[in-house]
Amino acid sequence: MNNITPNTINIPRYPPEFQQIINAKNQNFVGREFVFAAINNFLNQSDRGYFTIIGDPGIGKSAIIAHYVSQNPGIVYYNVEITGKNRADEFLTMICTQLIEIAQHQGSKNLTPNSLDFTTENSGLLSLLLQEISARLHPEQRLIITIDGCDRIDINNQARGSNILYLPRYIPEKVYFILTRRPFLANQSGLLIETPSQSLDLSNYPEQNRADIQEYIKTYLNESSHSVDASAASRRVRSLSEDQHLGDVSLNMTEQGFNDDETNFMYIKEILAAINKDIYPPNLQLYYQNHWEKMNLATSKQQPMALQVLNILVQEQSISIEAIAERLDTDEYEIKVILDKWREFLHLESIAAQIHYSIYHASFRDWLRQQLESKV
After folding, report:
1. Do the beta carbons of residue 78 and residue 91 sit within 8 Å?
2. Terminus of the chain with fewer CB atoms < 10 Å: N or C?
3. Which candidate, 76, 64, 6, places its Cα nearest to that of 36?
């Protein structure tokens, strides 16, 4: 399937730091056709709107956006994960600058960076630019703005109750926002919008995710510079895990190769990169360390209860709030508050009419367990 979206406008030149991320994330990209098909369906069925890609850490959201942008010249791109770019003022300045260039290319004589006030108090300027561009688009054209990493936005300096990054509540025809973010609570989306919207949760497509992972592994192992079979990769990483005393991080591999159930691109990428090295994948360890720090920060007011909850989670495949509360002899509400704050790192599953919680990936769960055990 062709993942190119026809008739996007052809302008933006991305800042160097954004172009570097696009290039890096687009390397060895495979599959994800079901995502691109869903995006194109939304664009074809809605005259404007917000499309949100939701997925666990490491499942490949950023790579999807990077590839989509690389295949569709003219799409506006913004990445929140770059240091300093997670604030509304940075977003509005950079996006509005790109939009002014688009408006000028369309023939607008009234919009220049020097003549406009880059206010960060609301999305007034952003809305003005979107309206200006929309009015000049040809019937078959669209303006698409992508924002990668909405879960990393710093909302502390925004007006209370405002949309994340002051994204507009209403948008004009032929204007679309494509967002990526980790799982979140429905009442904490940070967006109040009155325009067509659709979400695609990658966790609802396990078969497609597994197929894409297998294709990624096959492509990697078939390259001459990575000439090693999957069994050797499995044994090598298991050895690394034991040497580093980090538990069975190869839980999702078998002696025959990588487990067919694997769906996390970040994990596979870093494990493959460590095949010929004598250290536990440093990027994976740093990635997990950042997760843990964010979890600790989110529940700093609930310590030491949060630590007790985490100790239970890392020992279980999945467990209900009721079971955790019973073990700790505490109120279920207190447990729910903690788990809600960790939502982006948890899987939720309904079992026998109860919601069961689990750490989003076995490798991260095992890493956390080792960290906790080392502190005893």
Report:
1. yes
2. C
3. 64
